[in-house]
Design a protein that fits this description.
Length: 221
């Protein structure tokens, strides 16, 4: 079983629309669809804003479905200004940028990603960029703040959920992978850019995952 999550339902709609649906239901107020894509059993859900909701929903889904892999697909804002809207980021390291624990700084970094899933994405989408993703419970829409965070963290992009999902998977000893699409540049135009680019690119990570699931078995558990 592969658990695939997103922040907003449209981000995973291509998976839902193209799976052989076995079951639909609701868990803690979130709709899920369970079905078959290729030779993979998948459960798809969405609906969390911020790290607390991301962690809570992920844990509830793990408890209910016992997935062999968790995959997060959704949007992010760029910290690295060489990126552009539509770029795909495969997370290799995760950290909460607003969690300050000086004596335990290294322990807040999570690097235990599912490398085989990332390799599959690279084979299907070689333009995917690998790197660090940081998460926090506030929106960044200021170029100076963006540049400061990039200097401090060396992360490619920023969101409100990846580090939380990664931490829950780590605590449950479940392989995971995170694929983000850049929707804004974390600057003063972020709100406008997000609205425009969401329509253009929001489904891109799910479409890549769907292409892989049709041809490969990802959950070998």
């Amino acid at each position: 079983m592969i658990l695939i999550e997103s922040v907003f339902m449209p981000e995973v709609q291509p998976l839902i629309d193209n799976m052989l649906t076995l079951e639909t239901g609701e868990l803690v107020g979130r709709i899920y669809s369970r079905g078959i894509i290729g030779q993979n059993e998948v459960t798809v859900t969405s609906g969390f804003i911020g790290k607390v909701e991301a962690a809570a929903i992920t844990q509830k889904m793990i408890d209910r479905f016992s997935p062999g892999i968790v995959v997060l697909v959704s949007g992010a804002g760029a910290l690295d200004t060489s990126l552009k809207p539509g770029d795909i980021i495969a997370g290799t390291e995760f950290q909460e940028y607003d969690l300050i624990v000086p004596a335990r700084s290294n322990s807040t970094r999570i690097t235990s990603v599912d490398s085989s899933t990332i390799e599959h994405v690279q084979s299907f989408f070689p333009d995917a960029k690998l790197g660090k993703i940081v998460s926090g419970d506030r929106l960044v829409a200021d170029a100076k703040e963006r540049d400061r965070l990039y200097k401090e963290t060396a992360a490619l992009c920023l969101d409100m959920d990846s580090a939380a999902v990664a931490r829950v998977c780590q605590l449950n000893s479940i392989p995971f992978a995170v694929f983000k699409v850049i929707l804004d540049m974390c600057d003063e135009y972020s709100e406008r850019d997000f609205s425009e680019n969401f329509k253009l690119y929001a489904t891109k990570p799910a479409e890549i995952i769907f292409s892989i699931l049709k041809r490969h078995i990802l959950d070998v558990k």
